[in-house]
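Below is how a single chain appears once it has passed through the pipeline. First comes the sequence as given, then the structure the pipeline wrote out for it. We keep one example in the README because the format questions we get most often are answered faster by looking than by reading.
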Amino acid sequence: MEIIPAIDMIGGKCVRLSKGDYDTKKVYNENPVEVAKMFEDNGVKRLHLVDLDGAKAGHIVNHAALKAITQATKLTVDFGGGLKTTEDLNIAFDCGASMVTGGSIAVKNPAEFSGWIEKYGSEKIILGADVKDRKVAVTGWLEDTDAELMSFVKSYYEKGIRKVICTDISRDGMLQGPAVDLYREMLDAIPDLWVVASGGVSCIDDLYQLQAKGVPAVIIGKAIYENRITMKQLAEFL
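Resulting structure:
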């Protein structure tokens, strides 16, 4: 199972939210590059970088931090948050992102997102499926939709998507355990889908539980920042 630590950014700083609520913002480090280097030093190969300012603004904002991280480390970075246009995508790729994640645009502008899949290929485009009560939420989780999770994912699988980051919003930042059954259900429905579990990881046992269920990858955020999972435990798992 691939371990993908997350760095969420507001104002160029490393922060975490609870259930996507911007009012719960907690700053963990003023320097995301420092955090990225720490992950790399402990054997991590991949980073999930989220531009929370961009998610709210509807366009890329924290691209300078993305560039700084990709220049200072060899981490494979997937970048998301506010990517709405091909211009945003080009900025992200020019700043060193290996992959980008599109969530809101996949719901609101499927023609544009489908065009990205065709142009850049499934290795570079990840579908962001952030869910609340089995429905997809968008705009930094500030807006609910009527899009049902499995139908949404299957529609893009048919268009070539192979990687999906699925975040259970109700669990994100709450340290109450991941939605294991939801991810297993997704894998049962589409066996060769690269499902990235996100939200709720609270301790190292959660990683072993996800691994036992055959989940291909997991994003970890607050559990690391709150020292619920130590760098030593993470290095041993890896």
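The longest strand covers residues 2-10.

See the next section for the split statistics.
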